[in-house]
Structure formats: structure tokens, C-alpha cells
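C-alpha cells for chain A. Residues wanted.
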């Protein structure tokens, strides 16, 4: 059975942390952070697979994509940025998980945007973590993608400024996104650097000092996070104890896998996650779902 914890931000908006508790109090705890535009319920099968493997698991809602009907959506009257999620949402979720499972080693699992911000969190709060798992995340620096992407990324940032939010559905990228998030995303695309907040803070030197164990998994055929773009993102943490895995889903017998669908077939990544945790001498066993069990909540890729 899952448990839901409601967390409240300084501005009064709320988000939910969904928890799956393992029977062992000292089981490792893993907090899943979603991709841009994706609701937390989409990660139910991945959470269940991690729980079956012997973990406490939490899934945090991404700001602006909460499942509640009265949740506030990005617009002229509601804006936020990478900086806000990094320095408020991530700490609230981490604190709640660690308070709930104080005997556990603690890991962040970030997907796409969730991976980017989890890397940044590790650079600012390394003592809070025992390791990072980054799956299907990337650097969006335009030189990794080509000049047309530079134009696309900067137009996306400007559309957010003009409309008050970025209407991702119309561009087949993300969902309804805050203009501040898109401004930070576009800056990273333009400069290759994570420079956030006002005044600007350059996180690149902090990332270069991360020494935590990191498992980074990319997927063959992932249009939104090709192998070389994951390498560029993870390469920012040059001192990390890195385990780098690139999987070929078709070669492993998994069909129709893309940047998002791997989440609904967690058996693709679970062997690598369990092997990595065993190497860290974490007590975990290799079980999990193939993607057919019932989700613990609603889900949606917007």
C-alpha cells in the first residue's frame, strides 16, 4: 500500500510525495524525480519494481504538474524556475523521505529534467545523498544537437516570455511549462552551463566537485537524450564514481521504448540498478515488475 505525504511550499502551493515502504526499516530509500511535463503517477510501475527489489521508494510531483484538480498551473500569475525547484522542492521531498526512513541509505533517481536538477542538488547538498541514479537525461547545449536546435531552444524561451508560459503540447515537447523553467532551459542550451537564480550562480564548479557514486543509464533510440548528450551532462561531474551504462532496448527484447516508455517497462533498467546497488554493498535483491501491475495513482504524459 502507498502512503501520500503533502508538502507545502513557501508560496502556499502544495505537492504530493507518494511513498512505498519496505518491511525492512534499513532498506535503501530511493526518491524518483520526474521528467519535464510528466505527472508523478506515470512512475508507478518503476516505483513498484524498486519496492519489490527491496527499497523504500518515493515519487515526488514536479512543480506545475501536480495531479490535484486545484493545482496551480504556470501562467502570468504563477512562474518558477530551476532555481526554485532546486532550492525548495527537492529539499522538501528529500527531508520528508529521510525523516520517514531515517535508518536508510538515500538515493535520488532523476529522469530527464529530474536528472538535471538531481545532479544540481547533489552539487549543493552532497552530504544528504549516498548516490545518484540518472536515467535518460542530457545536456541541451546546442553544439551537441546542431544549429537548428539553438534556434528552437531560444524561440521556446521567448515564447514563454511572450505568453507567460510555454505551451509544450503545441510544440510536441513537454507540457504547460513555466516561463522561468524554459528560460533556464534555453540558457543551458545557449551556453552549455547551468547558471541559475538572481544574481546568477554558476553551478559548473560545484558539479565538478561531486564525488558521489553515480549510475547513468542512456537508451539507444532515445530522441530526447541521445548517448552523447548524456555523456556531456554526466561529464560535468568529473570526480564522481561513475558507472556508465548504455542499453539497447530492442537488443534486450523490449519494443517501442523511447524517452518516456521505459518507465512503464522497468525490467529494462532494473538489472543495472540492482547490480549497481549491490556493488555499493546495499542489501537489495533483483525482482520487479515487467510493466503489467496496477499503478498506485493517476498518470499522464502531458
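Reply:
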Amino acid at each position: 500500500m502507498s502512503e501520500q505525504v503533502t508538502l507545502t511550499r513557501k508560496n502556499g502551493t502544495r505537492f504530493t510525495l507518494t511513498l512505498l515502504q519496505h518491511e525492512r526499516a534499513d532498506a535503501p530509500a530511493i526518491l524518483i524525480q520526474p521528467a519535464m511535463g510528466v505527472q508523478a503517477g506515470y512512475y508507478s510501475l518503476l516505483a513498484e519494481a524498486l519496492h519489490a527489489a527491496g527499497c523504500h521508494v518515493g515519487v515526488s510531483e514536479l512543480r506545475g504538474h501536480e495531479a490535484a484538480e486545484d493545482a496551480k498551473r504556470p501562467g502570468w500569475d504563477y512562474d518558477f524556475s530551476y532555481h526554485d525547484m532546486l532550492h525548495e522542492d527537492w529539499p522538501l521531498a528529500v527531508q520528508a523521505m529521510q525523516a520517514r526512513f531515517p535508518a536508510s541509505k538515500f538515493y535520488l533517481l532523476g529522469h530527464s529534467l529530474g536528472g538535471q536538477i538531481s545532479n544540481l542538488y547533489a552539487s549543493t547538498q552532497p552530504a544528504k545523498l549516498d548516490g545518484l541514479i540518472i536515467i535518460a537525461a542530457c545536456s541541451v547545449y546546442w553544439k551537441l544537437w546542431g544549429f537548428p536546435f539553438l534556434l528552437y531552444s531560444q524561440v521556446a524561451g521567448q515564447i514563454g516570455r511572450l505568453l507567460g508560459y510555454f505551451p509544450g503540447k503545441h510544440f510536441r515537447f513537454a507540457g504547460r511549462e513555466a516561463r522561468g523553467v524554459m528560460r533556464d532551459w534555453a540558457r543551458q542550451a545557449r551556453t552549455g552551463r547551468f547558471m541559475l537564480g538572481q544574481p546568477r550562480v554558476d553551478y559548473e564548479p560545484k558539479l565538478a566537485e561531486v564525488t558521489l557514486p553515480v549510475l547513468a543509464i542512456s537508451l539507444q533510440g532515445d530522441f530526447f537524450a541521445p548517448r552523447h548528450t548524456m555523456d556531456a551532462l554526466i561529464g560535468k561531474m568529473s570526480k564522481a564514481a561513475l558507472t556508465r551504462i548504455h542499453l539497447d532496448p530492442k537488443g534486450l527484447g523490449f519494443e517501442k521504448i523511447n524517452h518516456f516508455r521505459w518507465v512503464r517497462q522497468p525490467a529494462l533498467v532494473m538489472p543495472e540498478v540492482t547490480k549497481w546497488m549491490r556493488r555499493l554493498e546495499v542489501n537489495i535483491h533483483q525482482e520487479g515488475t515487467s510493466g503489467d501491475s496496477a499503478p498506485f495513482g493517476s498518470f499522464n504524459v502531458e
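Residues 82-100 form the longest helix (19 residues). The longest strand covers residues 2-8.
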